Amino acid sequence: MKKLRLFVYPALLAVLTAFSWMKALGTAGTDEIRFSAFIQKAQINEQKQAYITAAECYAAAAEIRPDDEDVLIHAAENYLRCDEGRLFLRYCRRAADLRSGNDSPWLLMCGYYLDTGDAAKARELLECIPEKCRSEKTEDMMSEITGRFQTGYKGYSDAGPFYGEYFAACDGKKWGLADEDGRFYILPEYDAVGAYNADEDILPVCSDGVWCFINESGQVRSVPSEKYTWLGAYSSGLAPFCCDGKYGYTDTDYNERPERYDYAGSFSENVAAVKKDGKWALVSPELKCITGFEYDEIITDEYGFCVHSGLVRALKNGREVIIGTDGRVSEYGKIYSCGLSPVAFGDSWGYEDENGNVVIDAYFDEVSDFSENGRAVVKEDDRWRVITLEVYR
């Protein structure tokens, strides 16, 4: 009996093992048949534009082969054709989670978010694509997203760049202050308008040849005893002015500093540009030199600011250099705001990104830098308008 057991048990184990293998092979074979049937049915319905049935068949096939990226993408695409956005995203995410080295599921989702007006979500998704899954298509879509913008309806005959949330705008005759939506925040009643310091509620304006500071209600804060021919933006406790052909600095009560220059610009990030004896330098609010008077020119904008995104453009010995607010020459070759910099093509202007890719074509006659809030003023067909980036950094 003992010998019989020694013979029977191994034989029984072998039979059970063989049965299990046969069952597994049978199941695998059945799964393959079912998978092929689902795919065939999905393709037939897809050709007949019965997209919901096609999507369901691809989804059923994906349950048999959950690691088949192509099947998951086919399911997603057909759900999208049926406007089933939730199911489309579900199957795209399943395909993306495979990390197969293909960026197709990521790009499909990005395209969906762009079509539904969520460019910020599309960019966020692009930045999450693993390095091994990226391709030229990834970079192309990143450029497309970066360059997407909306144009404001309101147009102006002239305009200055954004300073904070506002910019100087002219309605054809008089100047006022417009907001990010292009609406006048301070009505166009002045001959000239400077940059508005929202924190201090102070704006330099010129009316009938007289420069002074006003608040947002248009009330005059005080009028200088001297007749200034220009009054710049108030910042860092000082505002530049011009009187009798010389420039200096004053506070809001028109207590003037004794220093005089051939030019004095407005302070931004506690730095301003000044010119003396044909040379330019950067100075602090204490009017101490941050650099020597060594530059042929320091580039300022319409308000007199020279600092943009923490950097200053200057010319020295016929060459353009970039300076930091500490006075040191920077390694940067261009100044970017929201990741973009103006670029000229002949007489037209557009914007390029930090990789040198043109992301906004040269539609415009003139452009400004983008503000921190992703807005710029551009000139097209003799009218200035606000453009707003759909996504920016």
Radius of gyration, taken over Cα atoms and rounded to an integer in Å: 33 Å
The level-1 CATH class of the domain at 194-329: Mainly Beta
Helix fraction by DSSP (H/I, runs of at least 4) = 25-40%
Q: Quaternary arrangement of the chains shown?
A: single chain
Query: Any idea what the shape is?
Result: elongated
The second-level CATH architecture of the domain at 194-329 is: Beta Barrel
Largest sheet: 4 strands, antiparallel
Strand order, main sheet: write it out: 1-25-24-23
Number of helices: 7
Q: Residue ranges: pLDDT <50 for 5 or more in a row?
A: 1-8
Please state roughly what percent of the residues sit in beta strands, choosing from under 5%, 5-15%, 15-25%, 25-35%, 35-45% or over 45%. 25-35%
Q: Cα distance, first to last residue?
A: 84 Å
Q: Please provide the count of β strands.
A: 25
For the residues shown, what is the average pLDDT?
A: 88
Quote the CATH topology of the domain at 194-329: Lipocalin
Please identify the structural class as seen in this structure: alpha+beta
Describe this structure in words.
The protein has seven helices and 25 strands. Helix 2 (51-64) packs antiparallel against helix 3, helix 3 (69-81) runs antiparallel to helix 4 and helix 4 (85-97) packs antiparallel against helix 5 (104-115). Strands 1-25-24-23 form a four-stranded antiparallel β-sheet, with no helix packed on it. The chain has a four-stranded antiparallel β-sheet with strand order 2-3-4-5, with no helix packed on it. Strands 6-7-8-9 form a four-stranded antiparallel β-sheet, with no helix packed on it. The protein starts with a helix and ends with a strand. It has helices spanning 2-47, 51-64, 69-81, 85-97, 104-115, 119-127, 136-146, and strands at residues 149-151, 158-163, 166-170, 175-178, 184-190, 192-193, 203-207, 210-214, 220-222, 230-231, 239-243, 246-250, 263-264, 272-276, 279-283, 297-298, 307-308, 311-316, 319-324, 340-345, 348-353, 358-364, 366-367, 375-380, 383-389.
